[in-house]
Backbone:
């Protein structure tokens, strides 16, 4: 249970960070 | 707890805080502008990431998530994920802009956008909100020190509060940053070893028995899902995302750290470290909370005591001490920032803004130091009354939601002093009414149970958008001559 939650939370966090960086870059280019 | 272990914990805090504080205060050029409050705008990725992560990781994270996991299950992780979203918004939007504008306080930017009256009102409320969080952090420090010593929470809050004052008063932001790097490392070492130790003592040497406990009861199946039930998701998960992102996303507490960054690119890169550093803490806290809930002898103690009692009982004394020292350090870092930032607002927006316009760096630093001590001492006195932590956070956070949207819309779309003033007056009155009258109860249903931040978000957006469409106002701040 712990390993599942640890890995899935880490993936979700990194996905959110990457999405944020991509959106911020796209908006600043406009 | 054995005297030797208690002594080791306090010695660790004292050596780190005083050692780093004295070293930095000797090294720094005292006349450098923004040296004390903004670390000379020189913070690199390591210090900035630790400061951003630990500033918004305090009492509510530690004691709150244990309690929430007990009652609601794994959905409590959303309290942590809401802070990840906050850090993303701060590092990519608001934090970048406060650094770009070269300001020292958030109200300074709002003064240029909405005039002195509105910005002073916001300065007073923002300092008050952050100070309110300081009283909760003081309570958290008191609870952790009391667990270690057996003293009363009031006595423990005094000792912890004194440590918290020295965390910041010797060398300001640069000291907070350096101490935070050390404490972030110690915190994760403590958490990882403690979690492994607890797992080893469970049947099978892992957390499968905890999962099996909740799977066995259909009424409690939702406890191990991070999405919980639909109603919990709307009121708790989304409610937290709104409150945390739109309050802390503009609060001086987090923005002052971003203002202290070396440059904008450092803030953007810092996000990769600060987000997981803050967010992963929730996984440990939720698993510890769920484990305590699944073991009957701890579960019967109730949500407030189950997890902490389990930690004290299941861990060897040295590891319990390491974990408590690391949790204490995390709370102290928030204590330090919640004392430093209202003191900075007072020094820059009130003292320098009204009483001594020509104050030099030395006078400003002295004013900040005096205010840190005054604010912390009053917070220690109030913390003895033990205000309820989660209810208070919910109310406090809702105050700054309109300020976030005034900043964003004023920066990129349109701004008007009259609309700005109307927005804060209406939303602040409504926030008070939502907490202290029977209006939510008389509305009832899911709307009546919505947290304050939902209400202030909807109302501030309506007033700002409708107001800006009706009133002529001025163009976006980024298009103005001032900018």
Residues:
């Amino acid at each position: 249970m712990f390993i599942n939650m640890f890995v899935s939370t880490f993936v979700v966090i990194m996905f959110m960070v990457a999405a944020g960086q991509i959106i911020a870059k796209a908006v600043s280019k406009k | 707890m054995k005297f030797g272990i208690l002594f080791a914990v306090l010695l660790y805090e004292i050596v780190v805080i005083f050692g780093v504080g004295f070293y930095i205060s000797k090294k720094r050029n005292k006349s450098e502008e923004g040296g004390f409050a903004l670390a000379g705008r020189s913070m690199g990725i390591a210090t900035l990431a630790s400061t951003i992560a630990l500033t918004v990781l305090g009492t509510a994270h530690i004691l709150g998530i244990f309690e929430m996991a007990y009652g609601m299950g794994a959905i409590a992780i959303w309290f942590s994920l809401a802070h990840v979203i906050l850090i993303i918004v701060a590092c990519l939007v608001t934090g970048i802009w406060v650094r770009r504008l070269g300001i020292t306080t958030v109200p300074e930017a709002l003064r240029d956008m909405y005039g002195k009256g509105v910005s002073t009102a916001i300065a007073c409320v923002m300092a008050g909100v952050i100070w309110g969080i300081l009283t909760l952090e003081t309570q958290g420090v008191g609870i952790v020190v009391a667990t270690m010593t057996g003293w009363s929470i009031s006595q423990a809050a005094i000792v912890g509060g004194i440590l918290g004052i020295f965390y910041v008063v010797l060398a300001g932001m640069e000291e907070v940053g350096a101490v935070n790097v050390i404490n972030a490392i110690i915190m994760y070492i403590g958490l990882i070893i403690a979690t492994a130790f607890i797992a080893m003592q469970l049947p099978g040497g892992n957390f499968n028995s905890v999962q099996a406990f909740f799977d066995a009861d259909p009424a409690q199946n939702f406890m191990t899902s991070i999405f919980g039930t639909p109603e919990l998701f709307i009121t708790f998960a989304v409610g937290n995302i709104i409150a945390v992102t739109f309050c802390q996303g503009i609060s001086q507490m987090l923005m002052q750290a971003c203002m202290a960054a070396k440059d904008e690119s450092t803030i953007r890169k810092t996000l990769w470290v600060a987000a997981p550093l803050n967010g992963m803490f929730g996984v440990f806290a939720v698993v510890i909370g769920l484990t305590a809930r699944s073991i009957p002898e701890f579960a019967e103690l109730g949500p407030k005591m189950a997890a902490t009692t389990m930690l004290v009982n299941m861990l060897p004394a040295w590891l319990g001490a390491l974990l408590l020292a690391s949790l204490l350090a995390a709370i102290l870092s928030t204590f330090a920032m919640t004392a430093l930032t209202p003191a900075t607002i007072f020094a820059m927006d009130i003292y320098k803004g009204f009483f001594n316009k020509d104050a030099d760096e030395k006078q400003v630093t002295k004013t900040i130091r005096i205010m840190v001590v005054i604010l912390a001492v009053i917070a220690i006195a109030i913390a003895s009354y033990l205000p309820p932590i989660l209810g208070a956070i919910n109310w406090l956070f809702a105050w700054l939601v309109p300020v976030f949207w005034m900043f964003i819309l004023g920066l990129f779309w349109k701004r008007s002093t009259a609309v700005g003033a109307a927005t804060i007056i209406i939303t602040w009155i409504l926030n008070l009414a939502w907490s202290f009258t029977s209006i939510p109860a008389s509305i009832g249903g899911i709307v009546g149970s919505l947290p304050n931040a939902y209400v202030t978000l909807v109302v501030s957006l309506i007033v700002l958008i409708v107001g800006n469409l009706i009133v002529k106002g001025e163009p976006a701040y980024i298009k103005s001559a001032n900018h």
Q: What stands out?
A: The mean pLDDT of chain A is 89.
